[in-house]
From TrEMBL:
This is Replication protein A 70 kDa DNA-binding subunit B-like. The lineage of its organism: Eukaryota, Viridiplantae, Streptophyta, Embryophyta, Tracheophyta. It holds the Pfam family Rep_fac-A_C. The keyword Coiled coil does not apply. It is found in: Nucleus. Keywords: DNA-binding, Metal-binding, Nucleus, Transcription, Transcription regulation, Zinc, Zinc-finger. One of its GO terms (molecular function) is zinc ion binding. Residues 9-113 form the TF-B3 domain. Its main location: nucleus. GO terms for cellular component: nucleus.
Length: 675
């Protein structure tokens, strides 16, 4: 003791009632001897110098005791006071001072109150933990990773906490601390430190993505005992790296989180996206583990993408060795990749780790076999329609497209003659990879993802017959381009159609998705339209007449762009009309050879060229509307029913003059003969 000081000491053993109610009872003799009077409030100072203001109360029914009440809870929680905790309270007082101002007194906590720190026993191995045994387990572990999980149900609630720990045998296990116990354990737990843990509960490890392969996980209770310790036998680093070859050979998302180390070879810019009206970003990178196999694709989302950019800017190095700890495997679009979890994953760049040093030595031995430069992938730029259709993509006629011998991308101008109603206009797609599903008895199977599911996503697969002056072909319109052009998704149209169909058609519609009697009218807006198509040709055997699949990736209906391309490529356009009277309706697709005017196209808004007499005659005899223009030299007549007929190109050349002369007369005279 310091000179001129007098110490008054009391030792206390925390009872079960005091631990549960967060109070501390003291003998009244200690209070009278230490304080002279019973104060209303005292200062409790721990050995770290943190002061807690505690109220002192008493009960008439217990005249020999007083107790610490309000203010004692945070002290008790911070120091993990439990049933059986031993503490020593000492009141220090200068002999020259008999009373402190405002009845405030000093109490000093002399020793660690947690009795687990005093335990002298053999600790249990983590690998032996089991629900079968009723043993009171006590383990010594090191915290490898600690993260918080916010509460999504109540914004004001405390977060829960999760940990991955390891013992001296190298066995890892998952800890879980509920939000109600967060404040009890958060102040004393620290990543990288060693702790002794006892009196805990256990449960089966059944999470979707499990950070450890242990069959159990530990759940903290309110009276779980935790105490800091030292142990040099527990490893400082612990990784279980998985090779790229093993990851790429997998076809299912792994249940367990993995570790991966690789050289950063490719990175993208931050790519913005919006999900549920919330804007965010992600980044794509490629990692090389120097095994000689393919590079592994990795996607970093939100905070992890921002963290990587910060780490790369902070490291003034020529190569970047990235360690991803507790990453998850994700099968996306037919390829296995890795990505971060929401909170568990740890990202390290050129970290001071033994595994990074060994990886760098391997990189030096390989020398020039592996490039250390980082290739930057730019964001996919969505060009404007005028750039895409007029300058960036080569133009080809349908005949030239069908003669192409390799996979290519072209722009062409054509008129949609009809929709193939013998094929489904939508298909049941996998919600993960958009591939078609195989219908089984009570579920669906995706061969690409190798998964079974009971739900599907309706997506467009519309086969349309498109013609130009050279030939006709079948174009396939999938969800992206079809939904943008129609302004409706396949799911929305299917929902509307289901509401209109009779009950006896519902089962057939759900099972097939096609048939003349339930083809949606919304798709008819395609027929007769002259459009610009950006398409990709791949040579699969579609049928014996067309040995290639022509898939449309983008559609343009802007008349200015169509007219610009027609003038540049000397495309011959025609006017498609739908003639009708009060007595009958006769949709006609009339395809004219000549280009009206030298610098403008018939019917294009803004044209100053005088239309031909034929067009005036047509528009003056009940024409419903001018649909569009087309370069196809072919005649197609469709009646009000389902009947349609097309003439060959050679026959169309001789029939066109007759059509031009007969259409006005036949429109006004229902008794006229067939054309």
């Amino acid at each position: 003791m310091l000179p001129n000081r007098e110490a008054i000491v009391v030792d206390k053993l925390i009872s079960k009632y005091q631990a549960a109610e967060y109070i501390l009872t003291l003998p009244i003799s200690f209070v009278q001897r230490a304080f002279g009077i019973k104060p209303d409030q005292v200062d409790v100072v721990d050995d770290a110098g943190v002061c807690y203001k505690v109220h002192v109360r008493s009960k008439p029914s217990r005249p020999r005791e007083c107790y610490f009440a309000k203010g004692w809870r945070p002290f008790s929680q911070h120091h993990m006071l439990r049933t059986g905790s031993a503490i020593r309270l000492m009141h220090l007082q200068f002999s020259a001072v008999t009373q402190l101002l405002d009845s405030y007194f000093l109490l000093v906590l002399l020793r660690d109150p947690n009795p687990i720190h005093q335990m002298d026993q053999k600790f249990d191995s983590v690998k032996d933990l089991s629900l079968i045994s009723k043993k009171n387990w006590c383990i010594k572990v090191k915290i490898l990773r600690m993260w918080k999980v916010p509460s999504y149900e109540k914004s004001y609630s405390q977060p829960s906490m999760e940990l991955v720990v390891i013992d001296k045998d190298g066995t890892q296990i998952h800890f879980f601390i509920r939000s109600v116990h967060y404040r009890l354990f958060e102040p004393i737990l620290e990543e990288g430190k060693v702790f002794v843990v006892g009196n805990f509960a256990m449960d089966s490890n059944t999470q979707k993505y499990r950070p450890t392969k242990h069959s159990m996980r530990i759940i903290f209770k309110r009276d779980t005992l935790v105490s800091g310790a030292d142990d040099m036998d527990i490893p400082i680093e612990s990784f279980d790296f998985v090779a790229t070859k093993e990851i790429l050979s997998s076809v299912k998302d792994d249940l367990y989180l993995i570790d991966f180390v690789g050289l950063l070879s490719t990175k993208s810019e931050l790519i913005p996206f919006e999900y549920r009206n919330r804007k965010s970003h992600y980044m794509k990178i490629e990692l090389d583990d120097l095994s000689g196999s393919e590079k592994l694709s990795c996607t970093l989302w939100e905070n992890y993408a921002s963290e990587l950019i910060t780490l790369l800017d902070a490291n003034k190095a020529t190569e970047f060795i990235i360690v991803l700890q507790f990453a998850k495997m994700k099968f996306y679009n037919g390829v296995m990749t890795i990505t971060n979890t929401n909170y568990t994953t740890r990202l390290m760049v050129n970290a001071d780790l033994e595994v990074v040093k060994k990886f760098r030595q391997k990189l030096i031995r390989l020398g020039s076999k592996h490039s250390t430069s980082v290739e930057v992938i730019g964001r996919v730029v969505r060009h404007s329609p005028s750039e895409d259709f007029l300058s960036l993509t080569p133009y080809a006629t349908i005949h030239q497209i069908k003669e192409t011998l390799e996979k290519s991308t072209f722009v062409t101008c054509g008129t949609v003659i009809d929709i193939d109603r013998d094929h489904a206009w939508w298909y049941k797609a996998c919600r993960q990879c958009t591939q078609g599903l195989e219908a089984l008895t009570n579920q669906f199977y995706c061969a690409k993802c190798d998964v079974y599911s009971t739900i599907f996503a309706p997506r467009f697969c519309i086969q349309v017959c498109v013609g130009d002056e050279s030939d006709t072909a079948t174009f396939v319109l999938f969800e992206n381009c079809a939904s943008k052009f129609l302004g409706l998704t396949a799911a929305e149209i299917r929902t509307r159609l289901l509401a209109r169909l009779p009950t006896y058609w519902l089962l057939l519609f759900n099972n097939q998705g096609y048939g003349r009697d339930h083809f949606p009218n919304e798709l008819n807006t395609l027929i007769g339209r002259t459009l610009l198509f950006k398409l990709t040709v791949r040579h699969d055997s579609l049928n014996k007449f067309q040995q290639c699949v022509i898939t449309v990736s983008r559609i343009c209906s802007d008349p200015d762009i169509i007219s610009s391309l027609a003038l540049e490529k000397n495309i011959k356009l025609v006017c498609v009309v739908e003639c009708s009277t009060e007595d009958f309706q006769l949709p006609l697709l009339i395809q004219i050879n000549d280009l009206v005017g030298s610098e403008s196209i018939l019917g294009v808004p803004g044209s100053t060229t005088t239309p031909s007499p034929n067009s005036d005659a047509v528009s003056g005899h009940g024409a419903a509307h001018v649909v569009t223009h087309t370069p196809v030299k072919r005649v197609c007549i469709r009646s009000g029913g389902d009947f349609s007929s097309r003439a060959t190109p050679s026959a169309s050349k001789s029939l066109l003059p007759a059509f031009e002369s007969c259409v006005p007369g036949n429109v006004t005279n229902p008794d006229a003969g067939d054309i």
